Amino acid sequence: MPKVALITGTTGQDGSYLAELLLDKGYVVHGLKRRSSSFNTERIERVDVHPRHPDARLFLHYGDLGDMGSLVHLIREVQPDEVYNLGAQSHVRVSFDVPGYTADVTGLGAVRVMEAIRIAGVNCRVYQASSSEMYGSTPPPQRETTPFHPRSPYGCSKVFAYWSAVNYREAWDMHVSNGILFNHESPRRGENFVTRKISRAVARIEAGIQDTLFLGNLDAVRDWGYAPEYVEAMWLMLQQDKPDDYVIATGEARTVREFVHAAFAMVDIDWEKHVQIDPQYMRPTEVDALIGDASKAREQLGWVPKTGFTDLVRIMVDADRQLLEDERMGRLVRIDR
Ligand code: NAP
Ligand code: F7E
User: Fold this and answer.
1) 201 is a domain residue
2) Which of 17, 153, 236, 284 is the most exposed place for a label (fewest CB within 10 A)?
3) Which residues contact 305 (CB under 8 A, 6 or more apart)?
């Protein structure tokens, strides 16, 4: 019998890569999607065959992390072996505008998933998408034993979800693992996260249809990895006999300014002629530096990052140049970008 996985956040960057990985491994994959007034399944179109097709192994279900009933019904119906809770209001800047909603979906949503599993009486393994944002102002390098000091409603919500996951593990003997993932990017990254905002703007400026890129804090330091490699780490965590918590990171520290410089350099354009600072993109409290130490994941999971900073920037800029070209030619946009 194939293994059955349930993913919340299937329509997001990580959820789409994880669905593909699990399908490649022979899983039947069920994904939670929320109702939206416009299509929100673009990232998984490549693998989303019609549910009645004989080859179908990916099934999408309406539900919401704010709606306990939908989670209980779904878990009872699909009887998953593994649950990956990736759904979240995941934008840090936006979390200052909608703190209550972020706490509800990103924080309490994780509790709803774990409680729904208990109510449904399903014996399964759980992955909780924890974040380096939980470290906030605690200086780098950050590892599993580093204390948390979150700096945003998003970070606070993730800390609540993290400790709730630990508590379900200890109180109910559930196989729940936290992946503390540092920033990871790809051509599927949402367009209002800084890396994608930059790669998209570089393509448009090169094509002459945009002149200025407005950004906030260029001095922030981040540890940027490549998303498809990070979802492999999620899967590895659930294949361990014992649940545990792991940092997933590259250990390579770069500023936002360095990302901007590298991306514009790829098309031979002087970034200083096109980038302006706009205070609206500054955060009330910033996280200055996140640099992860993933030694535990390397030793216990055998996980190591493969894609370095320059290759990541190249992958993203190339993909956005191709996307723009496809859009301008009126071609159907390739989903595997
Ligand atoms: P993402 O692209 O923003 O995807 C978030 C997903 O959550 C989307 O599928 C979204 O649906 C869904 N969602 C939002 N609100 C929901 C709700 N109320 N009910 C059900 N689903 C909801 O995020 P990502 O980059 O893939 O990240 C995946 C997870 O890892 C998130 O929990 C994020 O906080 C966490 N994380 C990300 C990073 C990173 O660098 N990417 C690092 C550490 C942790 P729509 O498609 O309809 O919006
Ligand atoms: O910002 C600075 C900004 O929004 C990175 C999420 O996936 O990773 C992500 O959170 C840095 C920050 O990602 C702009 O101030 C400058 O210092 O791309 P970001 P994030 O806040 O690090 C963590 C690990 C998660 O868990 C989150 O879900 O870039 N920055 N100018 C800007 N950021 C944005 N978005 N837009 C700007 O114009």
Assistant:
1) no
2) 284
3) 225, 226, 229, 249, 250, 294
pLDDT of residue 46: 76
Residues with CB under 6 A from ligand 2: 90, 92-93, 131-133, 182-183, 192-194, 197, 215-217, 220, 222, 256, 281, 283, 286
Joined together, the tokens standing for residue 115 give 């409680």
CATH number for the domain that contains residue 39:
3.40.50.720
Q: What is the pLDDT of residue 171?
A: 98
- Note the pTM of the prediction, 2 decimals: 0.97
Q: Which domain holds residue 239?
A: 4-190+225-252+286-307
Residues of the chain with pLDDT under 50: 336-337
Contacts of 82 (CB under 8 A, 6+ apart): 3, 4, 5, 6, 27, 124, 125, 126, 127, 238
Assigned domain for 209 exists: no
Number of domains in the chain: 1
Please choose from 61, 86, 184 the residue to mutate so as to test ligand 1's pocket, defined by most ligand atoms within 8 A of CB: 86
**Residue 303 per-residue DSSP state:** -
- Is the residue at 324 inside a domain? no
